[in-house]
Design a protein that fits this description.
The structure holds 2 protein chains of 2 kinds.
Chain A (H helix, E strand, L loop, with lengths): L4 E3 L2 E4 L5 E6 L6 E7 L5 E8 L2 E5 L7 E4 L6 E5 L8 E8 L10 E2 L3 E5 L1
Parallel strand pairs in A: 2-11
Antiparallel strand pairs in A: 1-3, 3-8, 4-5, 4-9, 5-6, 7-8, 9-10, 9-11
Chain B lengths: L3 E2 L3 E5 L4 E7 L4 E9 L6 E6 L3 E5 L2 E6 L4 E6 L8 E9 L5 E3 L3 E6 L1
Parallel strand pairs in B: 2-11
Antiparallel strand pairs in B: 1-3, 3-8, 4-5, 4-9, 6-7, 7-8, 9-10, 9-11
The chains are: A mainly beta, B mainly beta.
Protein backbone atom coordinates (compact mmCIF):
# COMPACT_ATOMS: atom_id res chain seq x y z
CA UNK A 1 0.00 0.00 0.00
CA UNK A 2 1.46 3.39 -0.97
CA UNK A 3 2.44 5.68 1.90
CA UNK A 4 3.24 9.30 2.53
CA UNK A 5 6.84 9.62 3.69
CA UNK A 6 8.49 12.46 5.60
CA UNK A 7 12.11 13.32 6.31
CA UNK A 8 13.74 13.80 8.67
CA UNK A 9 11.87 11.99 11.43
CA UNK A 10 13.42 14.32 14.00
CA UNK A 11 15.08 17.71 13.49
CA UNK A 12 16.80 19.70 16.20
CA UNK A 13 17.67 23.28 15.37
CA UNK A 14 18.67 26.47 17.11
CA UNK A 15 16.34 29.42 17.36
CA UNK A 16 16.66 31.70 14.35
CA UNK A 17 17.83 28.96 11.99
CA UNK A 18 16.01 27.93 8.83
CA UNK A 19 14.58 24.44 8.52
CA UNK A 20 13.11 22.55 5.61
CA UNK A 21 10.78 19.66 6.25
CA UNK A 22 10.27 17.26 3.39
CA UNK A 23 7.37 15.11 2.34
CA UNK A 24 6.88 12.69 -0.52
CA UNK A 25 3.13 12.34 -1.12
CA UNK A 26 1.44 9.36 -2.67
CA UNK A 27 1.92 9.63 -6.43
CA UNK A 28 -1.70 10.07 -7.50
CA UNK A 29 -2.51 12.67 -4.86
CA UNK A 30 -3.34 16.15 -6.09
CA UNK A 31 -4.01 18.06 -2.88
CA UNK A 32 -1.45 18.49 -0.15
CA UNK A 33 -1.55 19.78 3.38
CA UNK A 34 0.69 20.59 6.32
CA UNK A 35 -0.55 20.27 9.88
CA UNK A 36 1.27 20.64 13.16
CA UNK A 37 0.70 19.28 16.62
CA UNK A 38 2.35 20.83 19.63
CA UNK A 39 2.95 18.23 22.33
CA UNK A 40 -0.26 17.54 24.23
CA UNK A 41 -2.36 19.74 21.99
CA UNK A 42 -4.65 19.24 19.04
CA UNK A 43 -3.68 18.85 15.41
CA UNK A 44 -3.77 22.27 13.72
CA UNK A 45 -4.11 23.06 10.02
CA UNK A 46 -1.29 25.14 8.54
CA UNK A 47 -1.71 25.24 4.77
CA UNK A 48 -3.28 23.52 1.78
CA UNK A 49 -1.68 23.35 -1.65
CA UNK A 50 -3.13 22.51 -5.03
CA UNK A 51 -2.03 23.02 -8.61
CA UNK A 52 1.29 24.47 -7.48
CA UNK A 53 -0.17 27.17 -5.32
CA UNK A 54 -1.45 27.74 -1.83
CA UNK A 55 -5.22 27.34 -1.72
CA UNK A 56 -5.71 28.18 1.94
CA UNK A 57 -3.57 28.99 4.96
CA UNK A 58 -4.21 29.47 8.64
CA UNK A 59 -3.21 32.35 10.92
CA UNK A 60 -0.28 30.25 12.10
CA UNK A 61 1.17 30.21 8.58
CA UNK A 62 2.77 33.65 8.65
CA UNK A 63 5.59 35.12 6.56
CA UNK A 64 8.12 32.83 8.22
CA UNK A 65 6.53 29.82 6.56
CA UNK A 66 6.56 28.79 2.92
CA UNK A 67 5.72 25.69 0.92
CA UNK A 68 6.67 24.46 -2.48
CA UNK A 69 6.60 21.41 -4.69
CA UNK A 70 9.77 21.96 -6.66
CA UNK A 71 9.99 18.78 -8.70
CA UNK A 72 6.47 17.35 -8.81
CA UNK A 73 7.43 14.81 -6.19
CA UNK A 74 8.64 16.43 -2.97
CA UNK A 75 6.43 18.78 -1.00
CA UNK A 76 8.38 20.96 1.40
CA UNK A 77 7.63 23.22 4.33
CA UNK A 78 10.24 25.86 5.10
CA UNK A 79 10.45 27.86 8.29
CA UNK A 80 12.78 30.78 7.70
CA UNK A 81 13.71 31.76 11.23
CA UNK A 82 12.57 29.25 13.80
CA UNK A 83 11.17 30.23 17.18
CA UNK A 84 10.91 28.16 20.33
CA UNK A 85 7.14 27.94 19.85
CA UNK A 86 7.64 26.24 16.48
CA UNK A 87 8.63 23.08 18.34
CA UNK A 88 5.99 20.55 17.35
CA UNK A 89 5.24 17.49 15.28
CA UNK A 90 4.67 18.46 11.66
CA UNK A 91 2.48 16.22 9.54
CA UNK A 92 2.16 16.22 5.79
CA UNK A 93 -1.09 14.89 4.32
CA UNK A 94 -2.39 14.21 0.85
CA UNK A 95 -5.70 13.74 -0.85
CA UNK A 96 -6.36 11.99 -4.13
CA UNK A 97 -9.71 13.29 -5.34
CA UNK A 98 -11.29 16.71 -5.39
CA UNK A 99 -11.58 18.06 -1.86
CA UNK A 100 -15.32 17.70 -1.89
CA UNK A 101 -15.39 16.03 1.46
CA UNK A 102 -15.53 12.59 -0.11
CA UNK A 103 -12.02 11.30 0.43
CA UNK A 104 -9.73 10.57 3.32
CA UNK A 105 -6.51 12.46 3.88
CA UNK A 106 -3.49 10.19 4.25
CA UNK A 107 -1.05 11.45 6.84
CA UNK A 108 2.70 10.97 6.81
CA UNK A 109 4.51 9.74 9.94
CA UNK A 110 5.53 13.27 10.90
CA UNK A 111 8.70 15.21 11.61
CA UNK A 112 9.38 16.13 15.20
CA UNK A 113 10.92 19.62 15.21
CA UNK A 114 12.71 20.72 18.34
CA UNK A 115 13.88 24.33 18.52
CA UNK A 116 16.42 25.10 21.23
CA UNK B 1 -15.26 29.92 15.23
CA UNK B 2 -15.20 26.27 14.22
CA UNK B 3 -14.95 24.56 17.60
CA UNK B 4 -14.98 20.80 17.73
CA UNK B 5 -15.85 19.42 21.16
CA UNK B 6 -15.19 15.93 22.43
CA UNK B 7 -14.51 14.50 25.89
CA UNK B 8 -10.90 14.70 27.02
CA UNK B 9 -10.63 11.14 28.27
CA UNK B 10 -12.61 7.94 28.71
CA UNK B 11 -11.96 4.57 30.29
CA UNK B 12 -13.50 1.26 29.28
CA UNK B 13 -13.03 -2.44 29.89
CA UNK B 14 -11.64 -4.96 27.43
CA UNK B 15 -14.46 -6.62 25.49
CA UNK B 16 -16.92 -3.81 26.19
CA UNK B 17 -18.44 -1.14 23.93
CA UNK B 18 -17.58 2.54 24.14
CA UNK B 19 -19.11 5.58 22.45
CA UNK B 20 -17.09 8.74 21.90
CA UNK B 21 -19.16 11.83 21.14
CA UNK B 22 -18.25 14.86 19.08
CA UNK B 23 -20.15 18.09 18.55
CA UNK B 24 -19.31 20.76 16.03
CA UNK B 25 -20.63 23.97 14.53
CA UNK B 26 -22.78 23.22 11.51
CA UNK B 27 -22.20 26.31 9.36
CA UNK B 28 -20.07 25.37 6.33
CA UNK B 29 -19.97 21.69 7.27
CA UNK B 30 -18.80 19.40 4.48
CA UNK B 31 -17.89 16.12 6.15
CA UNK B 32 -16.67 14.53 9.37
CA UNK B 33 -13.74 12.23 9.93
CA UNK B 34 -12.59 10.09 12.81
CA UNK B 35 -8.90 9.34 13.23
CA UNK B 36 -7.01 7.17 15.70
CA UNK B 37 -3.70 8.45 17.03
CA UNK B 38 -1.23 6.54 19.17
CA UNK B 39 1.25 8.61 21.15
CA UNK B 40 4.05 9.97 18.96
CA UNK B 41 2.47 8.69 15.77
CA UNK B 42 0.45 10.11 12.90
CA UNK B 43 -3.35 10.08 12.82
CA UNK B 44 -4.74 7.07 10.98
CA UNK B 45 -8.10 7.19 9.23
CA UNK B 46 -11.01 5.33 10.81
CA UNK B 47 -14.20 6.61 9.23
CA UNK B 48 -15.88 9.32 7.20
CA UNK B 49 -19.48 10.60 7.34
CA UNK B 50 -21.10 13.13 5.08
CA UNK B 51 -24.74 12.01 5.19
CA UNK B 52 -26.89 11.38 8.24
CA UNK B 53 -26.78 7.88 9.62
CA UNK B 54 -24.50 5.12 10.69
CA UNK B 55 -21.40 3.90 8.83
CA UNK B 56 -20.14 0.51 9.98
CA UNK B 57 -16.64 -0.80 9.47
CA UNK B 58 -15.87 -3.94 11.40
CA UNK B 59 -15.62 -3.20 15.11
CA UNK B 60 -15.87 0.53 14.50
CA UNK B 61 -18.99 2.49 13.55
CA UNK B 62 -19.55 6.20 13.17
CA UNK B 63 -22.80 8.12 13.29
CA UNK B 64 -23.65 11.59 12.03
CA UNK B 65 -26.54 13.99 12.53
CA UNK B 66 -25.92 17.03 10.35
CA UNK B 67 -28.84 19.04 11.72
CA UNK B 68 -27.67 18.55 15.31
CA UNK B 69 -23.97 19.00 14.63
CA UNK B 70 -23.31 15.70 16.34
CA UNK B 71 -21.33 12.56 15.67
CA UNK B 72 -20.18 9.57 17.63
CA UNK B 73 -17.64 6.84 17.17
CA UNK B 74 -18.65 3.44 18.50
CA UNK B 75 -16.00 0.86 19.29
CA UNK B 76 -17.15 -2.69 19.96
CA UNK B 77 -15.33 -5.67 21.47
CA UNK B 78 -12.66 -3.42 22.84
CA UNK B 79 -9.09 -4.65 22.78
CA UNK B 80 -6.09 -3.39 24.73
CA UNK B 81 -4.55 -2.11 21.49
CA UNK B 82 -7.54 0.25 21.10
CA UNK B 83 -6.02 2.42 23.84
CA UNK B 84 -5.24 5.60 21.91
CA UNK B 85 -6.45 9.11 21.25
CA UNK B 86 -9.50 9.39 18.98
CA UNK B 87 -9.70 12.56 16.94
CA UNK B 88 -12.87 14.05 15.52
CA UNK B 89 -12.13 16.26 12.52
CA UNK B 90 -14.50 18.35 10.40
CA UNK B 91 -13.99 19.53 6.86
CA UNK B 92 -15.49 22.95 6.31
CA UNK B 93 -16.34 24.64 3.02
CA UNK B 94 -15.02 21.99 0.61
CA UNK B 95 -11.48 23.21 1.01
CA UNK B 96 -10.12 19.91 2.20
CA UNK B 97 -8.63 21.43 5.34
CA UNK B 98 -9.58 19.58 8.50
CA UNK B 99 -10.37 21.22 11.82
CA UNK B 100 -9.57 18.82 14.63
CA UNK B 101 -10.98 18.41 18.08
CA UNK B 102 -8.70 18.06 21.06
CA UNK B 103 -8.98 14.27 20.92
CA UNK B 104 -10.41 11.76 23.38
CA UNK B 105 -7.80 9.69 25.20
CA UNK B 106 -9.28 6.20 25.56
CA UNK B 107 -7.82 3.79 28.09
CA UNK B 108 -8.85 0.16 27.78
CA UNK B 109 -8.36 -1.82 30.99
CA UNK B 110 -8.35 -5.59 31.43
Amino acid sequence: EPEVTQTPSHQVTQMGQEVILRCVPISNHLYFYWYRQILGQKVEFLVSFYNNEISEKSEIFDDQFSVERPDGSNFTLKIRSTKLEDSAMYFCAGLAGAPMGSYEQYFGPGTRLTVT
Amino acid sequence: GQNIDQPTEMTATEGAIVQINCTYQTSGFNGLFWYQQHAGEAPTFLSYNVLDGLEEKGRFSSFLSRSKGYSYLLLKELQMKDSASYLCAVEYNQGGKLIFGQGTELSVKP
